[in-house]
Design brief:
The protein is of the alpha/beta class. Helix content is 51%, strand content 11%. β12, α28 and β13 form a beta-alpha-beta unit. The N and C termini lie far apart (84 Å). The C terminus is likely disordered.
């Protein structure tokens, strides 16, 4: 006999919803699968109250809406059932408290548990317990008949079945049991204090929380069809691993070309034994050496070799995301044709806060947005912010994607832009992904940040003598320290004007938005033969993208000056005849140098002048952003 107790207004029985949420969590979890399953069957226990059924399902007006809340009573039930199941580890109870509180963002344990006793026992819990005492038969029907029968049908967790059948709901639903449960919750505050710096526990909580909110949302639609749709989404949709190789072979580059050499060496290593038992890889090569396609090809083949679910390609800036996303999309269109067009979102998505999506007639917009939000695609192109927040934020909207990172290949393009003060945290995050979620990681850059120790990664481009190549072909650029004058904005304008005579394309990179805006206006007034463009985060990402497109067109036919902050340093494919860089750390200077004679269009090395720009009071622009600037000035004087 059906209890007719519902989880949602679409007619889903509560027993169905609990079971399928638990089943999805069990299938997705890479560790603690049994715990994940138990959390799934317990998470909505509170929906059994008549208060929830009347207000949320039947839409009856309620005088006391707190009584229809279902999270707190569900937490009490979960801990009681875990104890009944034989678990005594208080860290597991901590996990349960955080995870079952799944309708809000993760909170500090002290404030979270304190909120449970802020009048909620009398206002919420006692009325709910009184109500459920008169619904014992209904509870037993949901948990000990319908739910156990579903578990038997799928032959899942016989010990959990036995524990459910033996659980005494009448004893649990007494005021004495509630008092004891409240004492247990208060003790958990001390347990949390003792483990507040335990990042392993934090990531474990975040991961299981992510599994629950993913499963809960996925199984909120009509069942069992929602589960069947989930299974179809997780069915392997293959992308041939040699698509990038096909694209590169069409270029017909000579073997001695540096881009081809880098591509061939990475391609050879991915099929060799040298990468066995390695999980973190780096590709360190000069700008313009063809890292993007070489690394993408390596990632495609690495994904196939180790049967990974997806590639997550993360970059620092939205304009670079659009540039690289479009390049990947063109390749998939060229070699996959209608197979890609008909199911584009299954194969490739971009995800950042300004992304626009083109939906064709084959795609339902709701389904497409679900795929994007869940990163349920074979290739995900996104920002560092979206990636790192997915496993370090406390917000459900980000943590929803934590479990989507598992069993993937993650590519970090231009990681040198990550602040050094965050390297230790990032290192711990990435190691945890490798050790627990079976992730492979690739860092690609011209200036490798020291996030990992040398024995912790495999450098894939070590065998290439880039210095020999540069000597053989000739250097693209030369760094020229020009520290004899501490420039004001006005004197720097004059200095630039003297040096750019006869040059068609000029890049000026300054440390702050304020100095760059002042310089832009003055150079625009002084050099009226040039079109002067401005780039910084003052512009919206969409506007920056438009400006970069305009520069790419103008630089071919007109005299151009681009004034920018360091926003131009990461991955922007522009090529200038001469450059000027305000004093900055060496890695930033090298990144700027990568935009000077980027494509070897000129045989002689072109200059990048390193200047010292000061405010009126004598302080360096950017001294707040970059510490120890004078030390970098000394180093440049020595090496250049």
């Amino acid at each position: 006999m059906s209890s007719r107790i519902y989880s949602h207004t679409n007619g889903n029985l509560l027993s169905q919803h609990l079971f399928y949420v638990a089943k999805v969590m069990d299938e997705r979890a890479l560790f603690d699968k049994e715990l994940a399953f138990v959390l799934g069957i317990c998470h909505d226990f509170g929906k059994l109250t008549s208060f929830f059924q009347d207000e949320k399902i039947l839409k009856k007006a309620q005088k006391h809406k707190a009584k229809s809340n279902h999270t707190l009573i569900s937490i009490h039930f979960t801990i009681a059932f875990l104890k009944h199941f034989g678990i005594s580890d208080e860290k597991v109870f901590l996990i349960a408290v955080f995870v079952i509180n799944h309708h809000s963002d993760l909170r500090d344990m002290t404030s979270l548990i304190s909120s449970f006793f802020d009048g909620r026992t009398d206002e919420e819990l006692i009325p709910q317990i009184n109500d459920l005492q008169h619904r014992i038969e209904i509870i037993q029907n949901v948990y000990q008949e319908e739910l156990v029968e579903l578990m038997r049908q799928f032959n899942l967790y016989k010990q959990v079945q036995k524990s459910l059948l033996a659980f005494d709901f009448e004893t649990f639903l007494t005021k004495e049991a509630l008092k004891e449960s409240n004492k247990n919750l208060k003790r958990l505050r001390n347990t949390f204090s003792e483990n507040s710096h335990n990042y392993e526990l934090f990531f474990k909580i975040s991961y299981l929380y992510s599994l629950l909110i993913f499963a809960d949302r996925s199984m909120a639609s009509k069942l069992p069809f929602a589960y069947e749709a989930y299974q179809q989404q997780t069915t392997v949709k293959s992308i041939a691993s040699n698509l990038i190789e096909k694209k590169v072979s069409s270029f017909k580059s000579p073997k001695e070309d540096i881009r081809q050499r880098l591509f061939d060496i990475l391609d050879h290593q991915v099929v060799s034994d040298t990468i066995s038992h390695r999980n973190i890889f780096t590709v360190t090569a000069p700008t313009g050496a063809g890292k993007t396609l070489a690394v993408l090809n390596f990632a495609f083949k690495l994904k196939e070799k180790y049967q990974k679910e997806k590639i997550i390609y993360a970059l620092p800036l939205t304009n670079i995301i659009e540039q690289n996303y479009n390049e990947i999309r063109k390749i998939l269109l060229q070699f996959m044709g209608d197979k890609f067009v008909d199911n584009e979102f299954d194969y490739l998505i971009k995800h950042h806060y300004l992304a626009d999506y083109q939906i064709n007639e084959h795609t339902d917009i709701k389904d497409a947005l679900k795929i994007v939000e869940a990163w349920n695609s074979k290739i995900v192109v996104t920002t560092f912010i979206q990636l790192f927040y997915a496993f370090s934020s406390n917000e459900a909207s980000y943590l929803y994607r934590f479990s989507a990172l598992q069993n993937s290949v993650i590519v970090l393009d231009e990681p040198q832009v990550l602040s050094a003060e965050h390297w230790l945290l990032i290192r711990k995050m990435l190691f945890w992904l490798v050790e627990h979620l079976e992730v492979k990681i690739i860092l690609m850059t011209a200036t490798k940040p020291l996030i990992f120790k040398q024995d912790e990664y495999l450098e894939l481009a070590d065998s290439i003598d880039f210095e020999h190549f540069i000597k053989e072909r000739g250097s693209r650029h030369k760094l020229i320290p020009a520290f004899d004058t501490n420039h004001s904005i006005e004197s720097l304008v004059d200095f630039v004007s003297q040096k750019i005579k006869g040059k068609k394309s000029v890049l000026v990179v300054l440390n702050t938005k304020k100095s760059s805006i002042e310089f832009f206006h003055q150079i625009q007034e002084k050099e009226q033969d040039y079109i002067v463009y401005y780039l910084s985060t003052t512009l919206t990402p969409y506007h920056r993208k438009e400006v970069i497109v305009q520069i790419q067109k103008s630089i071919q036919v007109q005299k151009v000056i681009v004034v920018s902050t360091q926003v131009i340093e990461a991955g922007v494919d522009l090529d200038f005849e001469i450059g000027f860089r305000d004093l900055a750390p060496l890695d930033s200077i090298i990144q700027t140098a990568g935009r000077i004679n980027r494509h070897f269009l000129r045989k002689t090395p072109e200059p990048l002048y390193i200047v010292s720009l000061q405010k009126q009071e004598g302080k360096l622009f950017g001294a707040v952003s970059y510490t120890h600037l004078r030390a970098h000035e000394t180093v440049l004087d020595i090496v250049c």
